[in-house]
Amino acid sequence: MQNQPSIRRNFLMNTILRAANVLFPLITIPYVSRILLPVGLGRVSFATSFIAYFNMAAQLGIPTYGIRACAKVRDDKKELSRVTLELLLLNLIGTLISYAAIALSILFVPHVRADGMLFVILSLTVVLNAIGMEWLYQGLEQYTYITIRSLVFKTVALISVFLFVHRQEDILIYSGISIFASSASNILNFLHARKYVDLCGVIKKSGDVGTADAERGSDRATDAGCGIDLRRHLKPVIILFAMVCAVTVFSNLDEVMLGFIRPNAEVGIYHAAVRIKIALVDIITALSVVLLPRASYYVEQRRTKDFLRITDKGMHFVLVCGAGLTVYFMLYARETVLFLFGPEFEESILPMILIMPVVLLTGMTRVMGNQILIPQGRERIVLYSVVSGAVADVILNAILIPRFGPSGAVIGTLAAELIIVLIQFPRVTEEVGGTVRRVLSWKIAAAIILSIGAVVWMKELPTGLLWKLIISFLLFFAVYNGFLLLAKESLVTEVFHWAKEKIRKK
Q1: Both 248 and 101 in a single domain?
Q2: What pTM did the predictor assign?
C-alpha cells in the first residue's frame, strides 16, 4: 500500500469530525428547539426520515460497497478510476429513479403534499450524496480532507442558523441550512476527485473500445481494463442495498410511523431522545469507520494477523467507551434533555433512558458487520441479521406506538438492535469473542459503580444545568478511566502511555 495513512491520524481526524457532528447540534439545538417547538421539529424530523428512504434507494448500497471496492484497487489508478466511474453511474441511475418516486409522493400522498416544499428542499440530499462520492475518499483514507471540508461547511451553517432562523415560520430556511451543513460540501468532493481518479480518461477509452468493437463486429471489449462494466458490481451492491434497506427501515421507520399514527409533536419528542443517541453512536464508532478500508485491504492481501489486530482494537474501543457513555447519559438523561431542548421536551426523558443501551449495541454491530463480516465478503450474514431486526421493529412499532407513542418506538428499536447482535456475534466469535469476554469483566463493572457513586449526588445540587452536566461528565469519566488505568485495563493503559510519550517528545 503506497503512502499508507496512519490509523491513529485517521482515527484522530474522524473523531474530530464525529465530535463536530455532536458539537454543532449541541450549539444549535437549544436555540432551534425553542424556536420550532416540538411541532416544528417533528415536521422536519418526519420529512427527513421520509426522504431517507429515497436517499437509500438512490445510494443502492454503494456507500459501503464503494469503500471496500476502492480500497482494494487503491494502488492502481486506472482500475480505481474505472471502478469509481462505474459506481458513480449506478448511483446516478438510482438517483433518477428516486426523484421520480419523490415526485409521485408529493403529488399523491396527502401527508407529504401538505408540506411539499419542505420535502423538495430536503430531497436535495439525494443528488448531492450521489455526486459526493464520499466512499471514494473513505476508501483512500482521506480523512484529513473529509474533516477539514466538513468543518468549514458546518461552521458556515452554524452561523447561518442564528442569523436567519428567528420564527417558527422559518422552518424552510432551517431545512435549507441543514442541507448545506450535511451535503453541500459534496460538490467540492466531485470537483476534487480528479486528484485521485481520471473519469474522463475512462470514458474516452471506453468510447474508443466500443468503436473498435463495432468495426470488428465484436460484442465485447477486447481490453476489459478499458470498458465500463456495471454488471460486475450488481451482485454485491444488491446484497448491500438489501442490507441498507433493512437498516434504514428500522433507523427511520419509527419517526415515519409516529408521523402517520401520532401528532407531529410526539415525533419531535422522539427525535429529541434519538438525536442524543445518534450523536453518541457517532463518537464510539469513529474508529470502526476508519478501519473498514484498512480491513478490506488486509483481507485482500491475506494479512490475517493485521486484520485480527485492528479488529480487536475496534471492538475493544467500542466496549470501553460505549459502556461508560451509556451509563452516564442514562443517569443524566433529565438534565441533558432539559438543557438541550428545554422544558417543552420533558416527555423525551423516558425515551432517552430506554434508548441508551442502543449506543453500546449499535457500536458492537458496526464492528462485527462493517469491520469484520463485510470486508470478508460475508454480507449475507449482515443482511440476514438486519432484516430480522427490521421485521421485529416493524411488528413491535405497530403494536406499541398506538399505545405508548415515542416510548413504544424506542422499545422496537432496542429489540431490533439486540436481535442483530445475537445473530452476528456467534458468527464472529473467532475474531472478537475473546475481546468481549476480556473487556466486559469486573474491571468495567467496578469502574461504572465507582463513577456513578462519584456523580449521582450532583443531581441534587442547585446549580445550572450546563455546569452540572460539564462537572458531572468530567468527574464521571475521570473516575471511570482512572480506575481502569489503575486496574491496568489494556486499551486505557496503551492510550495513556501513548499520550504521555507524545507530551514528553514535545
Answers
A1: yes
A2: 0.65
| Count of CA atoms in the C-beta half-sphere (13 A) of 404 | 17
Residue 346 has pLDDT above 70, yes or no: yes
In a domain, 206, yes or no: no
Q: Is residue 159 part of a domain?
A: yes
Using the CB atoms, write b or e for 405-414: b if 16+ within 10 Å.
bbbbbbbbbb
360 and 250: one domain?
yes
298, 310 contact by CB (below 8 A): yes
Evaluate the CA torsion angle 107, 110, 115, 118 in order and state its sign.
negative
Domain stop point among 424, 440, 456: 440
C-beta of residue 362 within 8 angstroms of C-beta of residue 385: no
Using CB atoms within 10 Å of the CB of residue 465, give its burial: 0 to 12 exposed, 13 to 18 middle, 19+ buried: middle
- Which of these three, 423, 440, 457, is where a domain ends? 440
Domain of 93? 7-197+230-440
Give dist(CA 490, CA 469) in Å, integer. Answer: 28
User: Mind listing the pLDDT tens digit for each residue in 390-425?
Assistant: 888 888 888 888 888 888 888 888 888 899 989 988
- Listed residue (341, 397, 469) closest to 42, CA to CA: 341
Which three-class secondary structure string do you get for 138-178? HHCCCHHHHHHHHHHHHHHHHHHHHHHCCCHHHHHHHHHHH
Is residue 300 located within the same domain as residue 152?
Answer: yes
User: What's the grid cell of residue 170?
Assistant: 422559518
User: How far apart are the C-alpha atoms of 159 and 426, rounded to whole Å?
Assistant: 47
Least confident of 32-36, 208-212, 382-386, 409-413: 208-212
Cell, residue 345: 421536551
476-481: long-range contacts, CB 8 A cutoff, minimum separation 24: 476/324, 476/328, 476/451, 476/452, 477/324, 477/328, 477/451, 479/447, 479/450, 479/451, 479/454, 479/455, 480/324, 480/447, 480/448, 480/450, 480/451, 481/447
Assigned C-alpha cell, 201: 480518461
**Residue 379 and residue 290 in one domain:** yes
SS3 506: coil
Assess whether 412 and 460 both reside in one domain.
no
Whether 209 is in a domain gets the answer: no
Task: Give domain status of residue 415, yes or no.
Answer: yes
Which residue has cell 428516486? 98
pLDDT score, position 218: 46
Report the alpha-carbon distance of residue 297 to residue 4 in Å, rounded: 11
Q: Count CB atoms within 10 A of the CB of residue 195.
A: 9
* Mean pLDDT within 473-496: 86
Torsion angle in degrees (nearest 10) through CA of 500, 305, 232, 67: -10
Q: How many domains does the chain have?
A: 2
Domain match, 454 and 420 both: no
